[in-house]
């Protein structure tokens, strides 16, 4: 199930920084820390596959993980990107179901793997932990509902502009105003839910309208308000 994993140092596991674990007692946290496994993953590694049974979940210490579903024709539909500080895979543990998505590394990552049995024990024995976990689950459900609405109601042009703004909000810009995440045109198309050719054409239009600059996979944001306007994003 796990590929290209390299054992990491225990001290690299920064789970104490996640709000979910603030509710643990010292004894519970020590047990959690003892039972986690720290690993490093190369780009392209798969943490878990859609349709497979997984036995634990992941806290991301470093890097970026692509979460996607596979359509009937084999085309990816990217659901979201998880990054430092996020937890993934826990819903399959709670529901005792097979993974409904695939998690693939797109930027070299470090994770803390936490056994499912550890999660279930904490849910059963720590009420505040359980409530916090439910709140995280509800927020993710709300984001999924918004995603579905956008797919159904917004044009491809609006969606692409919205995705660029979202990537800006989630990952930020470097000192040259370039997005801190680099994606292929195909990956952008798989987020938007359209053909790669359409994304290439629209990116060229955004460039001509001086909203962005392109340098290979890198996207430099020139006019964020204009992108928000195109994406019908009201803040």
Descriptive notes:
The structure is a single chain. A hairpin with a 5-residue loop joins β4 and β5 (76-83). This protein folds into two domains: 5-151, Sandwich (Jelly Rolls), CATH 2.60.120.10; 154-230, Arc Repressor Mutant, subunit A (Orthogonal Bundle). The longest helix has 27 residues, at 127-153. It is 41% helix and 25% strand. It has helices spanning 26-35, 90-95, 116-125, 127-153, 156-171, 185-192, 196-208, 224-230, and strands spanning 5-7, 37-41, 46-48, 56-70, 76-83, 87-88, 102-115, 212-215, 218-221. It is elongated, with a radius of gyration of 19 Å. With 235 residues, it is an alpha+beta fold. The protein starts with a strand and ends in a 5-residue tail after the last helix. α3 packs across α4 (127-153), α5 (156-171) packs across α8 (224-230) and α6 (185-192) packs across α7.
Tag the structure with descriptive keywords.
235 residues; alpha+beta; Jelly Rolls; Arc Repressor Mutant, subunit A; 2 domains; 7-stranded antiparallel beta sheet; 8 helices; 41% helix; 25% strand; elongated
């Amino acid at each position: 199930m796990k590929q290209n994993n390299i054992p990491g140092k225990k001290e690299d596991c920064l789970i104490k920084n996640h709000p979910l674990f603030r509710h643990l007692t010292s004894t519970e946290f020590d047990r959690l820390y003892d039972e986690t496994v720290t690993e490093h993953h190369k780009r392209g590694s798969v943490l878990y596959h859609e349709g497979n049974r997984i036995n634990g979940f992941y806290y991301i210490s470093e890097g970026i993980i692509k979460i996607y579903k596979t359509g009937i024709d084999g085309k990816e539909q990217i659901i979201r990107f998880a990054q430092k500080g996020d937890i993934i895979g826990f819903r399959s543990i709670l529901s005792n179901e097979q993974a409904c998505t695939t998690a693939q590394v797109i930027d070299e990552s470090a994770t803390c793997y936490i056994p499912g049995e550890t999660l279930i024990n904490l849910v059963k024995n720590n009420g505040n932990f359980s409530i916090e976990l439910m709140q995280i689950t509800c927020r993710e459900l709300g984001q999924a509902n918004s995603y579905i609405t956008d797919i159904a109601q917004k044009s491809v042009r609006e969606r692409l502009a919205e995705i660029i703004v979202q990537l800006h909000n989630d990952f930020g810009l470097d000192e040259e105003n370039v997005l801190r995440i680099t994606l292929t045109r195909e990956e952008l198309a798989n987020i938007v839910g359209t053909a790669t050719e359409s994304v290439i054409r629209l990116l060229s239009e955004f460039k001509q309208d001086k909203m962005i600059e392109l340098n290979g996979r890198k996207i430099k944001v020139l006019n964020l308000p204009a992108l928000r306007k195109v994406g019908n994003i009201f803040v």
